[in-house]
């Protein structure tokens, strides 16, 4: 899979995963690209993925998907903290997403935060597509 788009249902925002640079399910490590896009925003950066199959965004999204219908909060961040997701779920199957992308977790940098909502079906689709992206 070349790229994955994670989109909001209530705001025209998207997160794109692309550019698998050396990712391998067996050897782990290397990089992928994350882009944040919304009205007036188009930023991207490379994300270091130490062990993308075992400490992964895919695992987080699968756990999020299986928590649909519960009231809870779940968070995940990349190894070096440059990409973070904080999600709040409600009993109706809505997921409020706050996605943060930093140009650098150290010293001077920029930070972009996208906030949008996803429904249960979108979360399940994203979990499945992100899993395939890392395989």
CATH level 1 name: Alpha Beta
- Spatial strand order of the main sheet: 1-2-3-4
CATH architecture annotation name: 2-Layer Sandwich
Average per-residue pLDDT, rounded, comes to 87
* Strand residues, percent: 35-45%
Search tags:
2 helices; single chain; 42% strand; alpha+beta; Secreted effector protein pipB2 fold; four-stranded antiparallel sheet; 135 residues
Provide a short characterization of the protein structure.
The chain has 135 residues and is α+β, with helices and mostly antiparallel strands.
Walkthrough of the structure:
This protein is α+β, with helices and mostly antiparallel strands. The chain has one domain: Secreted effector protein pipB2 fold. The protein is built from two helices and eight strands. It has helices at residues 57-66, 120-134; strands at 4-7, 14-21, 31-38, 41-48, 72-77, 83-89, 95-102, 111-118. The chain has a four-stranded antiparallel beta sheet, covered by helices on one side. Strand 6 (83-89) and strand 7 form a beta hairpin. Helix 1 (57-66) runs antiparallel to helix 2 (120-134). The chain is globular, with a radius of gyration of 14 Å. The mean pLDDT is 87.
């Amino acid at each position: 899979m070349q790229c994955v788009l994670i989109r909001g249902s209530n705001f025209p925002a998207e997160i794109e995963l692309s550019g698998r640079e050396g990712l391998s399910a067996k050897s782990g490590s290397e990089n992928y690209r994350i882009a944040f896009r919304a009205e007036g925003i188009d930023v991207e950066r490379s994300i270091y993925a130490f062990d993308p199959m075992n400490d992964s965004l895919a695992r987080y999204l699968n756990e999020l998907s299986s928590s649909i219908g519960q009231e809870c909060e779940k968070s995940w961040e990349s190894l070096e903290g440059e990409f973070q997701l904080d999600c709040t779920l409600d009993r109706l199957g809505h997921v409020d997403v706050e996605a943060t992308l930093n140009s650098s977790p150290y010293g001077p940098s920029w930070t972009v935060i996208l906030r949008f909502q996803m429904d249960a079906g979108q979360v399940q689709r994203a979990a499945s597509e992100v899993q395939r992206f890392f395989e």
